[in-house]
Design brief:
Elements: E1 2-6, E2 10-15, E3 19-23, H1 25-36, E4 42-49, H2 53-62, E5 68-73, E6 80-85, E7 91-97, H3 108-115, E8 119-124, H4 129-136, E9 143-148, H5 157-163, E10 169-173, H6 179-192, E11 195-199, E12 205-209, E13 212-216, H7 230-245, H8 248-262
Parallel strand pairs: 1-4, 1-8, 2-6, 4-5, 8-9, 9-10, 10-11
Antiparallel strand pairs: 2-3, 6-7, 11-12, 12-13
């Protein structure tokens, strides 16, 4: 199976200490996918970095990872996410700088890799909607899984419905009291016969598959250190099971287990 991860690879800058970690939704998913998917599956990344020190952190972190990397080097800055960790371990995204992603375009080689994927995985958030629109214009033969990464703050249903025909699996990180948004996601899953997965932090996770609903509790941990990347780990655990077994309930449990491991360490 060929898993192609497209989007952001960058730097997580932790405030106020200034610690730097390899990060980005696509990068986090890919590294977790390489651990979660069978060793015979091929995990690839398509992304871009700048010509700065952040690029060296990204490339050195991916070296010897077992991930096949197609990462363009562009003039400019590597994407940076500024993060503060709250006393309870919850991460707060302070500021995001997309850097060279605003100018990144898919060449013929990248388009060929994307079109031949068995599973295409990508995030979308406010700063890279243009890149996401370009990605969705590339025909693919396999399944497509999209992380709607900022739906909690910016529930863009127009964007979701614009591309819903091409999306097989959608991931949404929400609050358990966000009833209106969850109800809309459930309605769209039923109307379009899609698999939409809602992660709810400590309240667990939920999947809507057409008209069916599945619920899964979060895995308890002794201490939440840092929730950065928990959703990316969850998606990797979920898809590693779903794509090979298609048991939605077991896939939720696999995602919960990998997310629980992620939140017990600093850095995604």
């Amino acid at each position: 199976m060929k898993i192609v991860c497209v989007g952001d690879c960058g730097v997580d800058h932790y405030l106020p200490a200034g610690e730097l970690f390899f990060g980005g939704i696509t990068a986090n998913f890919a590294r977790n996918a390489r651990l979660a998917f069978p060793v015979d599956d091929d995990v690839q990344v398509i992304s871009a970095v700048g010509d700065d020190d952040g690029a060296e952190l990204v490339l050195s972190s991916l070296a010897d990872s077992g991930i096949d990397c197609h990462i363009a080097r562009l003039r400019g800055t590597t994407p940076v996410q500024y993060i503060e960790i709250q006393p309870d371990g919850e991460r707060k995204f302070v500021r995001y700088e997309e850097g060279i992603l605003r100018n990144f375009r898919f060449g013929e080689a990248e388009q060929e890799i994307i079109s031949r994927s068995d599973l295409l995985v990508a995030p979308v958030y406010l700063q890279i909607v243009g890149l996401f629109d370009r990605l969705m214009s590339i025909p693919t033969a396999g399944q497509t899984a999209i992380d709607f990464a900022d739906f909690l703050a910016h529930p863009d249903f127009e964007l979701l419905e614009r591309h819903i025909a091409q999306i097989d699996v959608g991931f949404f990180g929400l609050s358990s009291d966000d009833d209106a948004t969850i109800a809309c996601i459930e309605s769209l899953a039923r109307e379009h016969n899609k698999l939409f997965v809602v992660t709810l932090g400590a309240a667990g996770s939920r999947a809507y598959l057409g008209g069916d609903r599945f619920d899964c509790a979060a895995v308890p941990v002794d201490e939440v250190v840092d929730t950065t990347g928990a959703g990316d780990a969850f998606a990797a655990g979920f898809l590693s099971h779903y794509c090979h077994g298609r048991n939605t309930q077991d896939s939720l449990a696999a995602g919960a287990m990998l997310a629980a491991q992620a939140i017990q360490r600093l850095g995604a």
